[in-house]
Description:
The structure holds two protein chains of two kinds. Chain A has one domain: Folate-binding superfamily (Folate-binding fold), CATH 3.30.2270.10. Chain A is built from one helix and six strands, in the order βββαβββ. Chain A has one helix spanning 35-43; strands spanning 3-6, 10-13, 17-22, 51-58, 63-70, 76-81. In chain A, the strands form two sheets. Chain A has a four-stranded antiparallel sheet, with no helix packed on it. By secondary structure, chain B is an alpha+beta fold. Chain B folds into seven domains: 1-153, Ubiquitin-like (UB roll) (Roll); 154-278 and 391-463, FAD/NAD(P)-binding domain (3-Layer(bba) Sandwich), CATH 3.50.50; 280-389, FAD/NAD(P)-binding domain, CATH 3.50.50; 476-537, Arc Repressor Mutant, subunit A (Orthogonal Bundle), CATH 1.10.10; 567-621 and 715-808, Gyrase A, domain 2 (2-Layer Sandwich); 632-696, Aminomethyltransferase beta-barrel domains (Alpha-Beta Plaits), CATH 3.30.70.1400; 813-949, Gyrase A, domain 2. In chain B, strands 9, 10, 13, 14, 15, 16 and 30 form a seven-stranded mixed sheet that branches. Chain B is elongated, with a radius of gyration of 38 Å. In chain B, 50% of the residues are buried. The A-B interface holds A 1-3, 14, 18, 20, 27-31, 33, 35, 38, 41-42, 55, 57, 59, 62-64, 73-74, 82 and B 243-245, 247, 264, 266, 402, 660-661, 692, 695-696, 699-701, 842, 846-848, 850-851.
Amino acid sequence: MQIFTCPFCGPRDESEFHFGGEAGNTRPDGADVPAERWARYLYMRANPKGATSEVWVHMTCGEFFIMERDSVGHKVAASHPLGGAEKSE
Amino acid sequence: MSAERLNTGGSAIDRARPLTFSFDGRKVEAFVGDTIAAALLANDVAVVGRSFKYHRPRGVWGSGVEEPNALVDIAGRGPNMRATTELARQGLVALSVNASPDAAHDRSAFLDRFARFIPAAFYYKTFMWPDWHRFEPRIRAMAGLGKVDPAWTAPEAADQINHHCDVLVVGAGPAGLTAARIAAHDGKSVLLVDERMVPGGSLRHRDGGIDGKPSAQWITESLSALTGAGHLFLPATTAFGIYDHNLVALNQRHQDGRPDTLWRVRPRRIILATGALERPLPFADNDLPGIMSADAALVYLRCYAVRVGRRIVIATNNDSAYEVAEALTDAGATVTLIDMRQHDLPSAPKGVTILPGRMIASAQGKSRVESVTLDDGTKLTVDSVLVSGGWTPTLHLFGQARGKLAWSEKRAVFLPGDPVEGIAVAGAANGAVSLSEVFADVARATSSPPPISTGREASGGVVPAWPIAGAKGRIWIDYQSDVTAKDVELAARENFVSVEHLKRYTTLGMATDQGKTSNLLGLALLAGVSGRSIAETGTTTYRPPFTPVPLTSFAGPRSGELMAPVRRLPLENLHRAQGAVFQEYGGWLRPAFYGGADAERAIQDEARRARQSVALFDGSTLGKIEVIGPQAAAFVDFIYYNTMSTLKPGRCRYGFMLSENGVVFDDGILVRLDEHRFIVSCSTSHVAAVHARLEEWRQDRFGRDAVYIHNATSEMATLTVSGPASKQLLATLDLGLSLDDADLPHMAIGEGRFAGDLLRVARVSFTGDRSYELSIRADRAETLWRSLRQAGKAFDAVTLGLEALMILRAEKGYIVIGKDTDGTTMPQDLGVDGPRAKRQTDYVGRRSLFTEVAQAPNRLQLVGLAVREDEPPLAPGAHGILQDGPKLRSQGFVTSSYLSPVLERPIALGLIERGAARQGETIDMQHLGQKRRATITAPCAFDPSGARFNA
């Protein structure tokens, strides 16, 4: 069981968190978005081996945030609020 | 008679407290402190079990967790318990495994004579035709180990403890005790665990002295210094797994009948002082009872005063057996020491005959070893053979933590390779042999001075003793899984040359001991056969648990109702008093119907009476999520498929929420309280998911100051009054608001008061009849429900369970998401195409409604399905079928089906290909081989004009 750091609450057990998706998957708006672009938004993921940047939600406080972690060694490098600059190591 | 209890000695036993227990129905005498294995040896029981596959007689091999042979089923405790780690207790009942009637007289022993016809993978290859499953039950009945007692239940829930500390030390031998003392001295909080009942590890039976004191005194002093300073020591506790971020799981065993406790420990630093395990030596029939680990024989002698034999041969490839030879000679045994090595031998102990440069080629005996033949042909008569094939550092936990192992040519073992963050390995696990080396090893990681070894020092001289391909006879590699050298050679011949494949093909290293004594021998042989080095061949992956852990311990208190706790209605007790039969719906315990043993009749009766007069229903579980803020209208527009910003304050609108892939995710009523405040009323089972989704879009798209979201579901109870007489019923109560249809029309809300509390009244309907949903503080709902029931008497009001409500909504063609829709259903499939065609602003899932798939002509669409009045209802899940050329294929299926009491005929909803355009068409239906016909209709079967909303 891993320890994740919520930027608002601090380090907590992984069972308090839900995975929200890869960070930076921007939603293209509109009914005329090309099918390929929309499919990429819906389904295509980089799934990198190594350093990743992901959106997680801390269910007990309800806040979504960005977590930088390693998908191989599972080491958590940092986490910070969505769109925020403040970091919590 | 060969093994016996000596009259003096035995540091672990209390001779003043004798006890008896039963093994295979035989009475066994023991002392408090004995393990079951020690007591069996003291009573000269040579055969303690039968092997997994060939039913060969097997005796005690070791003295701890590595034990492959001496497994026993203990009544009330569990199957496959290691006799070497379980304490003997007064009245305990133990049975040998895989033996019938008992280990000494097993009637399946004949199997061993067919052994050469049933090598590794024999069953796979032989019983493929016609079907493995025809043979499997009988083969499984013949093989295997202990028996699970199906009648056993846990006496109580197992404890689970979360623990935090600075340093966790695994193993309380010389290295662990020293490491714990140094950490404590440095001001760290320490948890020290050891799988044995008492601390000390090898110090308990090996020669040595520390700081000028006897080992036993040093152990006692070290431990009391530790516990006296408030640190924790857990004996009989095995660290069985290291998980992500260095979470360590411990299995703590109790002697008082309590279930094992599971500890989850979060240490800042882990020190593995897990020691080393002695390996067997390869020679023919090396599995005979009476052949055991040399170190274990020393444990039984010194801790339990059991001398395992009188005429003993000790075979070794290393220095550690010399102390054993000396001790057994001193205890009166005749000992011959056979050392593989010709040169550089330790000095010979007094009275021990040493044969250098010799090996055992084979052992002989029927149910126990009687003689051995050496490689030069010499035959020696014996009653006991002790072997030491070298020491394997116990690195399972290090391996689980993704530590890489490095092969040491000099020591002929794997040692820890690159360090793992937060984990140190110390002592014998790190390759140290003498106490001086152990202490130096511990000191390397710390600054404080370690103790000084002042007694006799062990030496670590060793030569490899690996099995060699083509050797004569049956050389056992894995005792517990019955794997011989020939099985390993066969696997290699058939190209299973990866250790992982070897393991799965031969079962080498499987079963309860997970190959603690056998793995290295097996992979060394595989390396030899496949022409690779041992380092190249590598080890199998280490996975938890290190030793078996009872499932009760993982379950803890989470069983029965606590497995998945249900949510309960505020008015549950009132419903119960009224005879409600409860069922779980979407995580909530709700009334299915009221009263009566005949459920079907009660449900039909409730549904019929609801249409006649008035029904009362507890809808408290419906979602009530408030969306508040300056951008609330824009927010709900984006969230919903339907345009919601045009809704007037005080009004309600039905709508869908979609997933980004266009599939209908939830449906429900949105209430607009005022300009900037909405209530999302979602399905009971979707509240948490809808709430999370609203938060996600709020935080990731709209911003924290655009809207605020509050889940008020459990704050309010919602009681529904539905039916033609609902307005008259409410008029008899003083609710403080006008019920006039001009003031409170269908799909509008009003605000009143009941007994001083705020009451929200919404005219929305899930039954198709005039309905009022009354929402009030949950803790005041009881009075309101009582008043409604009291007032209802004059109108023949019926209380409605969820089953009858399902009939009423299906009569109207109202869907339940997930029941009448699936993971492909889009809003246009449900006949709601307006927003898709007309909306200009963006909303969740919009682009997905215009893909090729979304616009395909053959989509499944919601329809009603009618059968003849005198027929029973269609089965839910029945398929509409179509003869498509030679093939029969599905063209949709029934999603909901009931008998409608008001229509006096079956009704059904379904998803059928192009269904909306096929109304009036009769199609074939099939369910479990039975064919019927049904006519496609509109989904709404009752009051299609909606006149009853205002009746």
